[in-house]
Amino acid sequence: MEEMLGSNEMIVHLGPQHPMQPGPFRLNLRLKGETVMDAEVELGFIHKGIEKILENKTYLQGITIVDRICYLVALTNEECFVGCVEKLAGIEVPERAQYIRVIVEELSRLQSHLLGMGEYGEFIGFVSMFMYTIKEREDILTLIDMVTGARVTHTFLKFGGVRDDLPEGFKEKALPVLNNLKRVIDDYEEMFNTDRIYRERAEGVGILTADVAKSLGVSGPALRATGVPFDIRKNEPYLVYKDLDFKVCTDTAGDCAARVRVRLNEMRESIYIIEQCLDRIPGGPIFPVNSPYGRRTPVMRVPAGEVFHRVEDPRGEMGMYMVSDGTDKPHRVKVRGPYFPTLQALPPLIKGTTVADVAAISGSMDGCTSEADR
After folding, report:
1. How far is it, in rounded angstroms, from Cα 95 to Cα 222?
2. Which residues contact 346 (CB under 8 A, 6 or more apart)?
3. Is the dihedral of CA 288, 291, 296, 297 positive or negative?
4. How far is it, in rounded angstroms, from Cα 371 to Cα 143?
5. Which terminus of the chain has fewer Cβ atoms in its 10 Å neighbourhood, N or C?
6. Is this model's pTM higher than 0.85 or not?
7. Could you tell me what percentage of the chain is helix, strand and coil, using 3-state DSSP and rounding each to the nearest 5?
8. Are 61 and 170 within one domain?
9. Per-residue model confidence as pLDDT tens digits over 28-57
10. 139-195 pLDDT, tens per residue?
11. What is the DSSP letter of 160?
């Protein structure tokens, strides 16, 4: 970028310790005054090596590792990893276990969106929004903790089921929390809609078009905010999503405010999904009866083959490609997370904007850099 500098231009590096994204990455801006003339995303500051670690751990150990791809969506990562193994091994998940998985994964979606919107408010100076959303997020984390025994990373899903059943009285404790969240989501929406500074910083800013989003592979709320109704839970249903009534939330503006509105509406749908699951969940086992892959099998060998499995992460399409050579460890694991393509949309979105808009646009993408920089 430096070779292309014109008169009165300069390079400014934002990051890698970031004021507008969770996780370190560097955003190199070519500025002329306050105007962004060009931008470049630079990753490579985390060095987790998740995929190679997975290839050197047993399948059972891998469940713990995938939690760390992005702690905000640990349960969704587990669903994708466990789903790959279940496809390879031909394991059928009991219906009760499928319902429990949907419940905890939708609770995880709620807490992820709550944190994302709160952080976004903080990035653009709306600090009080973070204080509100973090309070409600703690209540959701408490519900998840009741089921999984952990608030952030869980190791809860097992090949063929889940580690534990729902605790006694879970429904009675969950419903008041969900009803309160319905009310405060309306409050959040009113706060966003009536705050003049927020509207000036978010409406009409960072407009992503459907064509650009699809060409870059953007998915999740950022794609749906452009009017594209793509959601893996509907388009390629897994678990019991095909039996549940919910709608894919879309918007047409494609700007920062549209991305926030989509997440607000998705939270309402997640609450509706959880309520349906709590009403319909059947009795029965949470693990296949007489399965050759026992809940506590120390060594699990998966039949040779290859598979790709994807699920709907709170940020979009989370997919994993897995190759088994018949041993107790995967021969190859490749993660296709949702945020790397979304990061590629940043440069075209912020070109021609001002430096102040960069934080608003980047924050509205609700990123998890550690997932992209594996």
Report:
1. 32
2. 27, 39, 41, 361, 362, 365
3. negative
4. 25
5. N
6. yes
7. 50, 15, 35
8. yes
9. 899 998 999 999 988 888 888 999 999 999
10. 999 999 999 999 999 999 999 999 999 999 999 999 999 999 999 999 999 998 998
11. T
